[in-house]
């Protein structure tokens, strides 16, 4: 009886992860490019809108990269070392491990600066 109830297709039931571990997301996905969406009779307006749209896409990608790549590293640096009896040189080892992360972060910040300057100049 419980199996029949779990497999029942009643419309009023809300999806429950314990009963149905798999869910389908049936959202439409549009596969048109940015240039196909921007079509007006005014060529200058087309160019301006295309530049702003490309900059918005770049900003969105930079935001995603910051959230996935840099936020956790910056938030949790030095966490987890609670004991007061640190080994000699442990802080230097942690900083050494952070150097490559900081180099990537520096390149990322430079790229963000360039994109923001491009937006301001437009």
Automatic annotation (TrEMBL):
<dbReference type="InterPro" id="IPR028191">
    <property type="entry name" value="WASH-4_N"/>
</dbReference>
<dbReference type="GO" id="GO:0007032">
    <property type="term" value="P:endosome organization"/>
</dbReference>
<dbReference type="GO" id="GO:0005768">
    <property type="term" value="C:endosome"/>
</dbReference>
<dbReference type="InterPro" id="IPR027307">
    <property type="entry name" value="WASH7"/>
</dbReference>
<feature type="domain" description="WASH complex subunit 4 N-terminal">
    <location>
        <begin position="1"/>
        <end position="122"/>
    </location>
</feature>
<dbReference type="GO" id="GO:0071203">
    <property type="term" value="C:WASH complex"/>
</dbReference>
<protein>
    <recommendedName>
        <fullName>WASH complex subunit 4 N-terminal domain-containing protein</fullName>
    </recommendedName>
</protein>
<dbReference type="GO" id="GO:0016197">
    <property type="term" value="P:endosomal transport"/>
</dbReference>
<dbReference type="Pfam" id="PF14745">
    <property type="entry name" value="WASH-4_N"/>
</dbReference>
